[in-house]
Prior knowledge:
Layout: H1 2-24, H2 28-43, H3 45-48, E1 51-54, E2 58-62, E3 75-78, E4 82-86, E5 100-103, H4 107-116
Antiparallel strand pairs: 1-2, 2-3, 3-4, 4-5
Amino acid sequence: xxxxxxxxxxxxxxxxxxxxxxxxxxxxxxxxxxxxxxxxxxxxxxxxxxxxxxxxxxxxxxxxxxxxxxxxxxxxxxxxxxxxxxxxxxxxxxxxxxxxxxxxxxxxxxxxxxxxxxxxxxxxxxxxxxxxx
Length: 133
């Protein structure tokens, strides 16, 4: 069991490192908003335990380590002027209304809204959403 926990902690650390590295390499208009967002999310205990990934200018969270990721966590879209918290990272024909909209200097409210909309079961695992217990 300790090996599984160590493996999961290693994958989680790798995922956060990869997201931070990619954010630092993005174009300035995206990097300037994504880098502080990634840092704030990683400092937020409830989000630090989830697997982060990016998709279409969004910082997303999953309870599993590999694609296909879980669909039960909100994500944060980045626009030229700020942040938009969305119910999920998945794109569908029916667009869900945003959960919250914030300016670039309002990361605290973005983190609060994301945490408020996380699933009550925040257990994580290595593998895809199809591998859920």
